[in-house]
Write a structure and sequence with these properties.
The chain is of the alpha+beta class and 152 residues long. The protein has a single domain, classed as ADP-ribosylation fold (Alpha-Beta Barrel), CATH 3.20.170.20. The chain has four helices and nine strands. The strands form three sheets. It has a three-stranded antiparallel beta sheet with strand order 1-2-3, with no helix packed on it. A three-stranded antiparallel beta sheet has the order 4-6-9. Strands 5-8-7 form a three-stranded antiparallel beta sheet. The longest helix is centred in the first third of the chain and has 10 residues. It is globular. The chain starts with 6 loop residues before the first strand and ends in a 5-residue tail after the last helix.
Length: 152
């Protein structure tokens, strides 16, 4: 069984978010427009990033771009690619600071997911991140600032 990372329900234009401590919040769509993208890393990848200053992994280099997710895509990305990991690091990056090297396009590999995903065609640097969190599998512990962005 795959881990559930967080709970968010969108009904009638309101996003209802329940965090791991049971706190629920309702947000209108105008309060939740995404402007951040996220990089998910294993603890080993994060350790390397803190030593080198680069958030670009070997996996990214092989594909020719840095794999990122919008907040609405995090649950799917976590379930598909990180289900066996116990702990991860979630890194927030302000997409407006990434310039034209950030391209929204079909997922790669395309495994039946819809929509477009943020791909960064450059070396994503640790200095470009705005915040990071350590998250645990099954802990429903994504930060509220991340959960506050609605999945469209």
């Amino acid at each position: 069984m795959r881990a559930v990372w967080f709970k968010a329900i969108c009904v009638a234009g309101l996003l209802s978010v329940t965090s791991c401590d049971g706190v629920s919040t309702n947000l209108s769509k105008s309060q939740t427009q995404p402007n951040d993208v996220y990089k998910i890393m294993t603890l080993e990848q994060w350790e390397t990033a803190t030593q080198t200053g680069s958030l670009t992994t070997d996996f990214d280099r092989n594909d020719g771009f840095v794999h990122l997710s919008a907040s609405r895509q995090l649950a799917g990305t976590l379930a598909r690619f990180f289900a066996d990991e116990e702990q991860l690091v979630l890194i927030q990056v302000d997409e407006s600071k990434l310039g034209s090297e950030l391209v929204w396009e079909a997922p790669y590999p395309n495994d039946g997911r819809g929509g477009v995903f943020p791909h960064y065609y450059g070396d994503l640097l640790l200095s470009q991140s705005t915040e990071y969190w350590e998250i645990e599998r099954g802990a429903f512990d994504l930060p509220l600032t991340v959960l506050n962005q609605s999945e469209e």
